[in-house]
Amino acid sequence: MIQRIQTIFLLLVIAVFITLFFVPVYTFSGSVTVIDAQVKGKILFIPILLVLLSCITILALVAIFSYQNRKRQMSMCRIGVIVSMLISLDAMVFPQFFIHGIDKSILQFGVGSYLLPINIILFALAANFIKRDENLVRAADRLR
Predict the structure, then answer these.
(1) Domain count, the chain
(2) What's the CA gap between 17 and 47, in Å, rounded?
(3) How deeply is 69 buried, as exposed, middle or buried, from its count of CB atoms within 10 A (0-12, 13-18, 19+)?
(4) 101: how many CB neighbours lie within 10 A of its CB?
(5) pLDDT tens-digit series, residues 25-45
(6) Looking at residue 58, what is its pLDDT?
């Protein structure tokens, strides 16, 4: 059903991912060149992360409305955990290896870097509660 706790977790995932479009994952102190360090480290200006972020947001939205098929919903949450880990890894590694010509000592992680692991936890919690619902339904079917 749509009013379950996993729906709240998936809505929080969507809210945090939409927030990640606009907050910087990393910041730079001092004078910065290289196209202002990808416009101050926002994911919105990194094409690979933008595509992944959009896909994972759509995946979480589809997972909310596929409540009638809990196995599919659980697999979507597991895929969401994996892709969220890839996004986190890519967002944390990107400025250190792929922005050339900038001193790495002026690199600082921003608000978005703390929001990335939260999504992994929220997806895992949603998958856990979906599994609990599935076990509850199976137990009720055995009693019949």
Answers:
(1) 1
(2) 15
(3) exposed
(4) 8
(5) 777 666 555 445 444 556 656
(6) 92
Measured between alpha carbons, how far apart are the two ends of the chain, in Å? 21
Q: What is the DSSP letter of 23?
A: S
Cα-Cα-Cα-Cα torsion 93, 20, 114, 65, nearest 10 degrees, comes to -110
* DSSP, residue by residue, 74-126: HHHHHHHHHHHHHHHHHHHHHHHHT-TTS-GGGEEE-HHHHHHHHHHHHHHHH
d(CA 86, CA 56) in angstroms, rounded, equals 11
Give residue-wise pLDDT tens across range 87-119. Answer: 888 777 766 655 555 555 566 777 878 888 898
Average pLDDT score over the chain: 79
Q: Which domain holds residue 54?
A: 5-143
| Two structure tokens written together for 122 | 């929220």
Cα 101 from Cα 112, distance rounded (Å) = 23
